[in-house]
Design brief:
The chain is mostly beta strands and 77 residues long. It has one domain: Beta-grasp domain (Ubiquitin-like (UB roll), Roll), CATH 3.10.20. Helix content is 10%, strand content 27%. It is built from 1 helix and 5 strands, in the order E-E-H-E-E-E. The protein has a 5-stranded mixed beta sheet, with no helix packed on it. Strand 3 and strand 4 (54-55) form a beta hairpin. The longest helix is centred in the middle third of the chain and has 8 residues, at 32-39. The termini are far apart.
């Protein structure tokens, strides 16, 4: 199955140099944690994870055509 991944701000360093959306081919039943392994993103990196605009976690199962968005937490005041 294919999914699309978008990385923003400081997390862009885990994407290929061409930038833009990244498409990955995964096995049925793969979880979001597998995507982070493929990207080489350490678990300790703080991030907000969305799948199709909804909050997700490392155990969320992915489906064909899902759009994964990863960005660092934002704080302000």
């Amino acid at each position: 199955m294919k999914i699309e991944i978008l990385l923003y701000a400081t997390l862009r360093k885990y994407s290929p140099p061409h930038g833009g959306p990244l498409t990955l081919e995964l096995k049925e039943g793969d979880r979001l944690g597998r995507v982070l392994e493929i990207l080489g993103m350490p678990p300790a990196v703080e991030k907000v994870m969305l799948i199709n605009g909804r909050p997700a976690n490392l155990d969320t199962i992915l489906n064909e055509g899902d759009k994964v968005v990863l960005f660092p937490p934002v704080a302000g005041g």
